[in-house]
Amino acid sequence: TGVPRCGAALHEPNKALRIELNANANCTWQIQRNANQTIRIVFSHFKFAPSSSCETESIKVFDGASTASALLGQVCDDTDAVPVLESSSDSLTFLITTNSVPFTRNFFVYYYFFSPGSRTENCGGELTGPNGTFSSPNYPAPYPQFKYCVWHIQAPKNSKINLKFQDFFLELDRNCQLDFTAVYDGASTASGLLGKVCGRAQPTFESSSNVLTVVLSTDDTNSYRGFSAQYSTAPLPGPMEPNTTLTCSSDSMRIVLSKSYLASLGFGEAHLQLNDPSCRPVVTDSVIFSFPLASCGTIKKDEGHSITYTNTISLAAAGSTITRQRSTEITARCTMSNNETLELIYTTTNNAIQQLAAGGRYNVSMAFYESDLFSKPVQYSPYYVDLNQTLFAEVTLHSTDPNLQVFIDTCTASPQPGFGSLTYDLIRSGCNKDDTVVTYPAFGNHGRFKFRAFRFLRSFPSVYLQCDIVICDSNSTSSRCARGCISRQKRAISPYTWKTNTVVGPIRLKRDLGAAELSESLTEVEAEKTPNLQQYSFHTLAFVVLVSNILIVVVVILKHHKHQGGYRYQNVQSS
């Protein structure tokens, strides 16, 4: 085959190409032959630069003599198949482009001309029913050259297919790039690739649904006896049982799997692991994973309107049966949103990925502190303050995820705990609306600000404070938290990641404290019972004394007893 340079014009009836390219390549191969035949091209091995995208690195195949012809298909780093493409005429072009990453790319490509519909092309077929057998052309004699056979297997609904190759002998090479059998988990070669096999083996495969596709592709070098295969069916696992649950909280993720459900998948608790294999379950009557949100390999993603935490339980089965990788995993996803409802959802995609999804809420609280040290919270309620006294407020996010940021978006005061139409803005959309408000820089899982006791306290006996809190990924430079104050004109294009509100109060003026205590004292006195209540009456004398700017309320309650000749007074209670 040699190592062709960057591109070539090819006219042979068949040819194999071993291609090696480096960075910044842009190479075109044109296949054309004056014949009344079409071209089949097989990309049996391709290795692009790691994590490359289709936009920067790919193989594009065109149905004609140039790259201006119609696009037949594209091969990229994440292509999950062995691409086989056919032209509609006697010409075909493919273009390989690579990005600037320094890496040696390797490709193995072979093509051949053939006549569609000819007798030599008749192989493969449709297989239905709960079980069956099939074999390669000429088995057990050597299979023909340049064959491309496709078998489509369709079993009864709600079943899966177990495929076993009883005898298997194909040409062996390192990457199975010459002669190979490919098995796909679905109705066509566009389904996910379960595996590609060559050489001598007895492979077995298991589908995730009732359809399976098997391909045999051969070149023109060595031929062997091929294969003989049989398939059978088994019922698909039923839906997840009620005692299979996912619970999300601000601190942790808890996954409970029933043993009967795992047994229906063919797995026991000994085969389970999370993204981080060191995180093991606790096995009781069920299998339980419980771990902090930001641990055990959990993947966090900022969705713009919410934050999701995803982890995967791998079901690493014993034995040699090959199954689609995605069908041997249970994905658990917690979505932290501002919806109060926690809803458990079970979904299955093509009977392949078992998914557990649940909603959760971050646990957020707000408290007043005695000073800007934020070390001593105010423990009593109501919180009595002086007019124009500086108040220190802190919002705390209670979460085990250290990479979260708290942002105070809006804070509103109201004399009504339900926050009706009568409100006063301290902070709005991250902007200070009251001249006395000072917001402190973000500090861990805390948001802090201070302000002076406001005018509402002059007119209303109690005031409540409600703050809207935004939670963001602290590593994001474009999040709502990173944008700070947003004007009304820009607010609509600045969606938050996760938002909730918290309320503290009531706040009251200290001048009302004496009246409140007096009311309480009178209530206690009136509750006292005496044998002859008719003989007594009460007088309350209140003295207000201003001493050194300290307001002192003195309350004296005198009890007098009516007797012959006048009244005798007795000091009953003073405070």
From TrEMBL:
Coiled coil: none
Protein known as: CUZD1 protein
Transmembrane segments: 536-558
Entries under InterPro entries matching the protein: CUB_dom, Sperma_CUB_dom_sf, ZP-C, ZP-C_dom, ZP-N, ZP_chr, ZP_dom
Pfam families on file: CUB, Zona_pellucida, ZP-N
Keywords: Disulfide bond, Glycoprotein, Membrane, Repeat, Signal, Transmembrane, Transmembrane helix
CDD domains given in the database record: CUB
PROSITE patterns recorded: CUB, ZP_2
Record-annotated ZP domain positions: 247-488
Biological source species: Melospiza melodia (Song sparrow)
Residue ranges of domain CUB in the record: 6-114, 123-234
Endpoints of the signal sequence: none
Statement: the UniProt record of this protein carries the keyword Acetylation: no
Highest classification ranks of the organism: Eukaryota, Metazoa, Chordata, Craniata, Vertebrata
